[in-house]
Specification:
215 residues; 8-stranded mixed beta sheet; Glucose Oxidase, domain 1
Length: 215
Amino acid sequence: MRHLTQRLSALYTGVLYDVMRGMGLGPCVLPPEIRPLKEGQILAGPVFTVEGKTGSDFDAHATLLGWTGLLSQAPAGHVVVCQPHNHEVALMGELSAETLKLKGVLGYIADGGTRDCQFILDMDFPVWCRFRTPKDIVSRWLPTAFNQPITIGDVRLCGGDYLLGDRDGLVVVPQAQAEAIVTEAERALGVENKVRSAILSGVDPQQAYLQFGKF
């Protein structure tokens, strides 16, 4: 698992997407509105999924108990991906990010909001989200499932799938085909390097494409 994460982090989302498109796989790119707090961070690793629900009058203690339970279950060496079904409150904050980083969690992605952004930036913990707000989850949100299939945009994610994020966005790699996809992406990257070298040496771009079958 760790070795595959390292190999994945050496790739980029464009070549990964090209390979998956060529293999005829389904939707794999998360919505472009989900962006990193810190541009330029690379995030790669196996996924631990979280799903939740919104309410208007949850017990405050229950919501905090549920949230800290989420933090307790998040496993080291994974990327937590949350489908909160909420576009009002923050699903990540300073203390939570500190906790996850200390546990060895690789990063956190929410199809929703976050807060305490400057603190998170200062600690250099990778967080991706749709928006920022000071509103927290107290009395408003509860987790309902861990490591069960979730859907974000048109992409279905399951616990154990892999994910790569960079400046271009986030690509999800199905666990069952992860090894084959990464291997093919590494091969494609090698071909791209040959095309680049050819272009830089003065080869016509169309001739380079015809020679290497890639552009």
